[in-house]
Design brief:
Length: 480
Amino acid sequence: MAQENKYKLGDLTFDTEQEYREAAMDLKRIKGLMEKYDVENPEQAKKILMSVKAHPETFRSPYGQKFIVKLERAAGIDTSQAAGSSAAPSGFRARPVLEEDKAENKRAKKEKKQKEKKQKEKNQKEKFQIFTPRNFAIGVVIVACVVVFSVFAPRLFSLNNSGDSNGDIRRNMVTAYANSQAELKMQLYTYYYNVVGQTEDEAQKDAEEGLSHYVMDLSDRTVSRMTDSEISDIYGRLVEGGDIQNNSFVEPSEITVLKDKLLAAGLSGNTGNGVEGETAVEAAINSMMDYQHRMYTSLCYQYSLLGNSKEDAQAYANEDMESMFGEVIYSYNMGIDDKQSYFDSFIKRGLIKDNQIVRFSADPAAYNLPDLTPAIEVAFSGGEAKAYECSMISYAPAASVFYEIHAGKKTGYLWFRNNGGNTDYISLDDETTVTVQGDFLMVFGSETHSGEWFYNRQNIGIKINGDTSSLISYVHDLTY
């Protein structure tokens, strides 16, 4: 009988790949939150909990629920009492009322009546002593307050009713906040649907998840219909959460990263409709030229990070462009016939669909690559593994993918090239052979390692000078 597949992550085992991926995603979110906030600080823990409450889909695994409990403890929320503090504990029995208790209650009521009687007699006596020094002083103060109020009240009401009041400022800030989110949400949806290739539901879900990094999601709410009280409440929550400081917006770092991806994909501020007067063919080819130019510039820069000369970096980038696009457009000065020829060629390659260019995915898994963020372990020639923080710095790893790595204050780079472009084989042992996926290079300080790489679904194997004992493993950071 075949053994049932299990997915293990840390100390948990999952029956399905979906549950495994949700747990891995929760761990990445937790790490990002811990880098941005001090989760032991009660105020910051409350801020995170407020965001999670507004977006209940943030965490979907036992790791996420464990993290929420940790936040509640840091925020001073007693979860053990929340379920029903008014209910008596199990096994509790009420004590019978004794005769001594009845006598004590009777004495207490009698003393209370005596005190009330004395206070009433005192008040009755003071009622007829109107012209005392104390009452005279109080009267003088009241008259002075009436005079001051009659002089300054008109000016105060005038200021409060001006068009530049605090109420208008708050409404304008909340409106701008909501409009910015609505625009970003549409761009994110377009990115996930057209660039990454997700379904409509998946794109909608990921776009909403992107906005969860804000304190509140107002992208679907009509601010103009909100009352002043609602605006004031929302404004207060944005200030308390840190999205507004000194009447200026403070953009979450996660949103900045998302906008960088949109910019790289050509979606930032771009409606995709071309300019007025362009035909569909011209608009598509002009967009393709712009996309190719940005991709080429990015590749040249990334190759230069590895110490290549300008000429070598351009040569590598040109090879990558040819392998990805088939045809690379170098001239902006071409006639409609040339543009039509390019248009037909890109349609055959699947790079233009419905008159829109189809961009390469930013997801490494789309090219049979593991997601190496946020941490990896690297071992060369069977030696001791070293840990590195890892982040991808290329948005379309179709031909070459680059990662930046850190260990302490040192920085280096990883490069996997010709993804799927080779036909060589690597013998792992007498019975196992894998296909080479491409060339590998790692530069870290004075260290340089180069060879060929393959991916066997568990780690990336490296063949260096005939030795296949080197590998790169993905590490989940479970310390939170």
